[in-house]
Automatic annotation (TrEMBL):
Phylogenetic lineage: Bacteria, Pseudomonadati, Pseudomonadota, Gammaproteobacteria, Oceanospirillales
Domain of life: Bacteria
InterPro entries per record: ChrR-like_cupin_dom, RmlC-like_jellyroll, RmlC_Cupin_sf
Gene3D superfamilies reported in the protein's UniProt record: Jelly Rolls
Organism per entry: Litchfieldella anticariensis (strain DSM 16096 / CECT 5854 / CIP 108499 / LMG 22089 / FP35) (Halomonas anticariensis)
Official protein name in the record: ChrR-like cupin domain-containing protein
ChrR-like cupin domain location: 17-106
């Protein structure tokens, strides 16, 4: 496994530029499925990576669907389920592209979702 902290790169400034998103300033966007809203935090031009927050209302449910990219989900708070498992705050799951799944929440949830090729 690669080390998390690697030596600093020589010749680089100690002050770097970072992308910072104040998520509170972003409006929730309608996802097209009742009970699901999202905020896009980062998207590469070629859609190779897309990071978003998903807010699921209590009782939100989406029928079976798939995505053409790998899906990584971290449950920030609340509850989330698919046809295989029920997830709680702190749980992480990853699905490969084209994986059929449902999505729902009994009590509502906030999740971090990362799509990648």
């Amino acid at each position: 496994m690669k080390e998390i902290f690697q030596p600093a790169k020589s010749g680089r400034s100690d002050i770097e530029q970072f992308l910072v998103i104040e998520t509170e300033s972003l409006d929730w966007q309608d996802s097209g499925i009742p009970g699901f809203q999202h905020k896009v935090l980062y998207r590469e031009e070629n859609d190779a990576i897309e990071t978003m927050l998903i807010e699921m209302a209590p009782g939100a449910f989406s029928d079976s669907h798939s995505h053409d990219r790998r899906e990584q989900i971290y449950v920030i708070n609340g509850d989330f389920y698919d046809q295989n498992h029920r997830y709680k705050a702190g749980d992480f799951l990853m699905r490969e592209p084209e994986t059929n799944h449902i999505a729902g929440s009994d009590g509502g949830a906030l999740i971090l979702l990362v799509f990648s090729k």
